[in-house]
Known about the structure:
The chain has 932 residues and is mainly β. 6% of the residues lie in helices and 57% in strands. It has a 22-stranded antiparallel β-barrel. It has a 5-stranded mixed sheet with strand order 10-15-16-13-14. The longest helix is centred in the first third of the chain and has 24 residues, at 2-25. It starts with a helix and ends with a strand. Mean pLDDT is 84; it is low at 1-25 and 108-119.
Amino acid sequence: MKQKTIVLVLMVLLCTLANTARAGIDATLKGRVIDARTGEALVGATLQIVQAGQTAVSNENGEFVFRTLGQRNYTLVATYLGYHRVSMTINPARTDTALVVRMGELESSLGTATVTANVKRNTEASQVAAQRNSMVVQSGISAQQIAKSQDKDASEVIRRVSGISIIDQKFVMVRGLSQRYNNVWINGAAVPSSEADSRAFSFDIIPSSQVDNMQIIKSPAPQYPADFTGGFIMIDTKEVPHENSASISVGASVNDQTHFQRFMAAEGGKTDWLGFDNFRRLQGGVHAPLQQTPGGSGISLTDNHFNNNWQLHTCHPWADLSLSANVNRSKEFDNGAVFALLGAINYSNNYKTYSPMRNAFFGAYDLTHDQSVYLRNTTDRQYAHNARLGAMLNLTFVPGKGAGRYEWKNIFNQLGTDRYTSRTGFNAQSNQVEEAEYYYSSRTTYNTQLTGKYAWDVSKLDWSAGYAYANRLLPDRRRYALDNSVDIDRIGLSTGNDINREFTRLDEHIASAAVNYRYTFNKPQHVNPELLAGGYAEYRTRQYNTRSFIYQWHPSGNTLPAGFQYLDLPTQLLTPANYGDQGLYLIDDTKMRNDYQGHHLVTSAYAAVNLPVGAFDVLAGVRFEHSRMELVSNTRDYEKSTMSRYYDNNDFFPSVNATWHLADAHQLRASYGRSVNRPEFREVSPSVFYDFDLSSSVQGNTALKSCYIDNVDLRYEWYPAKGDQVSLAAFYKHFDSPIEWTYTVTGGTDQVYSYVNAKSATSYGLELDIRKNLAFMHLPDFTLVFNGSLIKSRVHFAAGSRQKSRPMQGQSPYLVNLGLFYSHNAWGASLQYNRIGKRLIGVGRSLGSTGDQTVNIPDSYEMPRNALDLSFSRTLGHFEFKLGLKDIIGQKVVFKQLSDVTLANGSQRHVQEVTRSYRPGRNFSLNVTYKF
């Protein structure tokens, strides 16, 4: 035993001496790769120690490390796409400090032209640099910052930007203005609206893993479309890879309001898990001919491939799932040409439960009895199952000889939502009601764009051609409504109209093309003015079709069970045994006025000059846009009766953006520009759609006209250190004929939502944006990010109008985003806070006057809510682990109707009536990534 102990001690000592000796021989080389001109970190640069055969890739901070090197001279080679190759001799043992590798941007001669590498915008430092060097007022977010959060899609990503808020978890609002005042492009090309009933793009359809950066342009300029007022949002998908790599990622998350709880769902299709429908849609299309019942009573429920299973099943979801994989490849040929490929695929499957969810709506307050008057007072239980499939393929080719840099970018996303909602409560007549909606939505988006970029000694040229497609299907939306209006003691069917099913299909296509040219005049004394010119054309077409059916039976002579109106619908009444001429059948209740086609052509040209004079840079110019929109719809409900309405505009849009470089790190911006907000197809169509969530009909307004806006911006910017920024901005906007989303009451109790032009409006506010590393507090691994906005707006009406001055619809009086980020070696963490002020989401209309008071339906507001997110990350070799806690506070989402009234006794009262409230729940997530 003693001998064994001695041997063990000797072995330990021997290992210790060996390691000590080796430590004296081995050396470690640490360094950082930066842009030689800007000092910006270069992410993904490839570094190789030639003699040792070791290779490393720079991380998100441009850092790299080589270990177990000898005490000798080595050749270090650094390569990065778009930059000159760097080769240097180093000796790790003689390098006391971190090595800095400076790489110069490539401008290799290609005949008469040169190819210039793209400006990198996927790091936080590059975003700051892009904002600093921009000719306009802009903000942005990079892939590097996205990676530090738990954001799963673009709607969650963009709310981190100054002045941005999200509505309905998918629509973006900039500077408190509703989504209709924004314009969205992906990879430099226009995108279709993904919604049937609004001018909006659903940001939730783009996974965050596909996003390289987002730029939000906030001041008009000639080179940008005139149809934006809040922000022009440019989304770039992942850039060209700088090295060959691949990775896979698996994630799971749990919501404390959804998972391990009862979840109700209807029968689904075999491809629902991919986001596609394969069994609900009508065979042959929305308007396909359907077989009648044998006796000709109506449309057969059993001979037309309808899904007649109304029964529900129960499950208990364990967790949400997310999967992703990507591959990067680049190859440099002997002649210097480079071909690069980036491919990615992602998938997610998640569940969401809102139960219970209050759903109410109130009419004008009863001034005499001092009490609320509800038009609906119900409780919903909603269960949604979402499946998302996405793919991306980006190709880049840089010829070794010739001219140009060519890119082809493609992005595809498919999102399917299977949702069941049950509703109980009381209607305006105080009848007890039970309702349900069986809803499936399938949304498809595809964008492709081909671009070419060239640079000469004093000029640059780029062109692009793009195509985008969006599809939205509601195949077989089924609803039923029961009440006790016939028998106060029993809830049942009143008429066949109480059971219905609807099919809708929306297809939208966009083709676009653009060309931009820039010429720099070489003048003495460092004054080099630039001439900018270009053109853009966009053709958009939309087809919207709908078909609806109601259930019916013969009042007498039917063979339905006695008291069938009071049977349980899903399990007892809506079964094959009760279908046919003497039972239940369908009546086609389609109204052709709900179908429409749209065609919209926009052509534009611009010219501008950029004048750098001393400490000033001035970009001034004008843009001309021709817009012609045609809406084709029917004038009658039950026969083909098409009519075209045209909406034509020819406008000049002047703008000027000036920057005063006060000092090396300080600058002041001022800008003025005119912009436009045009109505969309749906907003001017007579089509009517019933929204179950709102319990209301939504319809267009053929008399809508374009809104014109004058925009003024003033912003001070300070860049105290690389990657740091402080900016304070003030803005003012005047709207002529703003378009707003309003509701009124028809028939005494039925709500109808529509669109109207107000006379005018103003919006003004302040924005503060801070990004600061905390090294001055001896915390170099921490970065603080803050952005906040204070906004005020008023809508004005014509003299004599019953409408009162109020904030603009969609307006938030303040926005706050606060983040603390930690990064050290392989560890990372973030704490992020968000709060949005009370936001006007629906405008009530006047019902008339009582005495000297105007009686109004109260306006609807989304109330303020605090959101706090926490995440941790750790890299271990090829693995990266991310743990997240989202919405830690877990506050309720609350909507209210608010009004100030004068009671019959003369006293004043501020009335708050809760219309909707629910808990979205806290999310706990774990994600594991393996990098090959």
